[in-house]
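ASSEMBLY PREDICTION REQUEST
Request ID: AP-0331
Submitted by: J.K., bench scientist
Number of chains: two
Total residues: 471
Priority: normal
Notes: Please return the full assembly, not individual chains.
Input sequences:
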Amino acid sequence: MLQVIEVGDYCAGHGKCYRIAPELLRAADDHGHAEYIGPAIDPADEAAVARGLNAINCCPEQALSWKTL
Amino acid sequence: MSLYTDYDHYNTPLGPDGTPYEYFEALRDEAVQTDKAIGWSEIYGGFWVVTGWEAMREIQHKANLFSSKGVNFPTLGTPGERPLMLAGYDEPAHSRYRRLLQIPFSPSKALEMEEYFRKDTNLLIDRFIADGEVDLVAALTQAVPGRMTAMIMGRPPEDGDRYRTWVHAIVMQVHTDPEGAAAHVRDLDEHFAELLEERRSNPGDDILSTVVHAELDGEKLNDDEIKDFFIALLIGGIDNTVHQLANMFWRLAWDKELRRQLAAKPAMWASAVDEFLRLYGPAQAGRIVNEPVTIAGVDLAAGQQIQMVHPIANRDPRQFANPDVFIAERTPNRHFALGLGIHRCLGAHLVRVEMRIVAEEFLRRIPDFELSPSRAPKWTPGQVAGMTSVPIVFPAGGSVPA
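STATUS: Completed
Returned structure:
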């Protein structure tokens, strides 16, 4: 099952995720809230999963998580 | 006796290096060993001291249970009876005001400031590079934020000197020299009145013009609200950033190996900035308990004051491996230096750019420097704590890194 990163309500616009993984996330508004722009990730693609995990783990609010499509 | 009992952020014991970090580590060790993320201090009539990362995260996410009216504790220096704009407000007023300033402090606007910071940093370095010695706080880390704040207010950078003086009067001098501070506050009032009139009749694209002409629910802000914004922008833009930059340069001055790593891999700066924030972020934040609640096994009663000691939570080994070691590429790095939740620092995107560019330019021009052997660095404690003097020596004219 493919997966993407879901941005939860706790996102406060720190912007660390899209600085670490600009290919996966970007600022969605002037506040800096994050938005997922990457492709759906195959869990078997270890490198892509690692990049996604880096972005998820860096969030100070712990607002990011995997969402299975 | 517990180190919690005498905890006083305005009187933190200093170690051999002139900073309280050794003391913070000791209190952190006690908190971890006794599994007490929150302890009671008897100072100022008694207040809760929060040191655990998980507890601090929970408090900042439960903004409805903890009022930001207690953000400054004890209440010191802010003029008038009104809370500090934004930082001292709770919802819904906080978000109502904050949205006025989202665009000027957006991630994209912060990146647009890169070139400004590069030019201004070099202009300031030009003034002392031939000397071979300088107090970095006086010559650089105070000047850059002051000048930047003046500039985004639509004023000449030179006004930054006055702005820094007023911030110092509001947050520090008021305790040691109230009459002197009052004189500075009168200057501030006079300047603000002139600026307000000017921006009303002749608006520019600066932040103050934005606030003056903004409407909330169909009404313009009154003079008190605009002045509160002005003061909050001065304090937020200058006080915190001056200490953050000073603390960063203090570390760089004695850590040649770190300077070598950053010179060898400049891309590392993106993550290194957050490691400087984690270990040397200057700010702490208070809250008042709104209703009885249990956090980390501690029963907090309504009306009690709590103080979140970010520099200790940012050294919590349950969240950060090797917490006392500077790891430039640390990931994840979920520190609290710029706040959390609804009170995430408004200038967070800007300060990261400011730190990176000022450090990059300084290290490019003066790659080799060290703390002065004859003049010791100086530290000031408090709600916003940090270096107030970082004297360094370096080869006159700068040098090429080895």
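REVIEWER COMMENTS: Chain B is about 45% helix and 10% strand.
SIGN-OFF: pending second reviewer
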